[in-house]
Automatic annotation (TrEMBL):
Region (Disordered), start-end ranges: 134-157
NADP among keywords: no
Name of the protein in its database record: NudC domain-containing protein 2
Chain's role: May regulate the LIS1/dynein pathway by stabilizing LIS1 with Hsp90 chaperone.
Keywords per UniProt: Acetylation, Centromere, Chromosome, Cytoplasm, Cytoskeleton, Kinetochore, Phosphoprotein
Lineage, opening ranks: Eukaryota, Metazoa, Chordata, Craniata, Vertebrata
GO MF, any single term: unfolded protein binding
GO biological process, one term: protein folding
Length: 157
């Protein structure tokens, strides 16, 4: 079985003071750097449809209203190597046109160049799903790719 699209094509991260976040068509990933030796019992994480709250050793790291809604029951967090917390949120709207411009409303926004690269990547990921026999992971895209690019679904095959 081939690797998922994002593993072949890489990710387009948005850096933050605490780590980074990035997205695919279906998910939003949040990676938070924590002090080495952090234990799971030191972590408090609340994941709701439109809200996230994370504190480590009683210190708030991340808290606020998410840019868009997520599927509450499918959100997870893990502590990796006792130094990285990875939060995975499942987007409610999994359309290529749903490219989050920031992680939280009015906070941790991607700069215009990163936002453009994120939108290109989601558009290519959409093309990959619509055409499973082709590999778009190394493709370049130009032209109208905002809001997921052109819709070819009505064309006859």
């Amino acid at each position: 079985m081939s690797a998922p699209f994002e593993e072949r094509s890489g990710v387009v991260p948005c850096g933050t003071p605490w780590g980074r976040w990035y997205q695919t068509l279906e998910e939003v990933f949040i990676e938070v750097q924590v002090p080495p030796g952090t234990r799971a019992k030191d972590v408090s994480c609340s994941l709701e449809s439109r809200h996230v709250a994370l504190s480590v050793r009683g210190r708030e790291v991340l808290q606020g209203k998410l840019f868009d809604s997520t599927v509450t029951d499918e959100g997870t967090w893990t502590l990796e190597d006792r130094k990285l917390i990875r939060i995975v949120l499942m987007k409610t709207n999994r359309d290529a046109g749903n490219c989050w411009t920031s992680l939280l409303e009015n906070e941790y926004a991607a700069d215009p160049w990163v936002q453009d690269q994120m939108q290109r990547k989601l558009t290519l990921e959409r093309f990959q799903r619509e055409n499973p026999g082709f590999d778009f992971s190394g493709a370049e895209i130009s032209g109208n790719y905002s809001k997921g690019g052109p819709d070819f679904s009505s064309l006859e095959k």
